[in-house]
Amino acid sequence: MNIKLLELFCCIVEEGSISGAARRSYLSQPSATKSIRYLEEEYGALLFNRDKGSVSLTEVGETLYPHAKAIIHEYYNSREAVRYANERTQSQLKVGASFTLGEYFLPSVISKYIGNARNDDNGNMELFIENTPNILEKLENKEIDVAFVEGKVANDELVKEAIAYDELVLIVGTAHPWSNVPHILTNELKNERLIAREKNSGSREIITEHLEKKGTLQNIASYMELNTTQAIKSAVMSGLGYGFASYYSVEQEIENGLLVRVPIADLTISRPLWCVKKPLNFEKPAVKVFSGMVKDSFGT
């Protein structure tokens, strides 16, 4: 079995056409078509329905696709394992992180990791920062080696470990009326504008869940939605309303007097921060090293 044939098959499925897969694979269309015929001969069945230039999977093709993806991944996984055993070198470590962890916590750990890299570990790393659902999708699709996220990890096939707990705190600007009070109650939240993350954000999800339990969410009529924590911090500093943010993301601003943390007497919002992996027969040694450094950093 030629692994390139399976890669081309998966590429056609993902591109939705033979011509698109041929371009992506740097092949001519006739060559790509001929290769798929070889693969169909190998399996003794048609893999695609062909109709006026478009293709769709047959039932056999639908059956083959997940197996082909797994075979391809295990093939490159085996090469990685042999390479490390033989040469003590490994490919680039690909880390995914949600915005809070990727922007406010991991940079210092990455700096330490690269600085401590031994001669036989090149220390190369690529960091992807997106919201939690997108990062977990990258992990499921094997586009990254490990993910660090907050929020729900619904896929039970992923291996997750809580490495720390984070508190989402209420923040206001220094000129806000709440900046000088010892605390507020949840029913007071309806009187001011809530500046929140987008709806598919892990932070937004857990805040919504807690406010719904308190019966407060439906009474908050004034919203502003922003898609980054930094944007929320800037809006809050400008006096546009109040927001919730990870304590890790606003610690410096609070210490420097740019933002004020306002305790809520009848509400505390905390959440686990997860290290998430796919179960693999061989895990890059760099994954274990870097994950350990992240956990140690939270411990300090």
TrEMBL record:
<keyword id="KW-0238">DNA-binding</keyword>
<dbReference type="InterPro" id="IPR005119">
    <property type="entry name" value="LysR_subst-bd"/>
</dbReference>
<keyword id="KW-0804">Transcription</keyword>
<dbReference type="InterPro" id="IPR036388">
    <property type="entry name" value="WH-like_DNA-bd_sf"/>
</dbReference>
<comment type="similarity">
    <text>Belongs to the LysR transcriptional regulatory family.</text>
</comment>
<feature type="domain" description="HTH lysR-type">
    <location>
        <begin position="1"/>
        <end position="58"/>
    </location>
</feature>
<dbReference type="Pfam" id="PF03466">
    <property type="entry name" value="LysR_substrate"/>
</dbReference>
<protein>
    <submittedName>
        <fullName>LysR family transcriptional regulator</fullName>
    </submittedName>
</protein>
<keyword id="KW-0805">Transcription regulation</keyword>
<dbReference type="GO" id="GO:0000976">
    <property type="term" value="F:transcription cis-regulatory region binding"/>
</dbReference>
<dbReference type="GO" id="GO:0003700">
    <property type="term" value="F:DNA-binding transcription factor activity"/>
</dbReference>
<dbReference type="InterPro" id="IPR000847">
    <property type="entry name" value="LysR_HTH_N"/>
</dbReference>
<dbReference type="Pfam" id="PF00126">
    <property type="entry name" value="HTH_1"/>
</dbReference>
<dbReference type="InterPro" id="IPR036390">
    <property type="entry name" value="WH_DNA-bd_sf"/>
</dbReference>
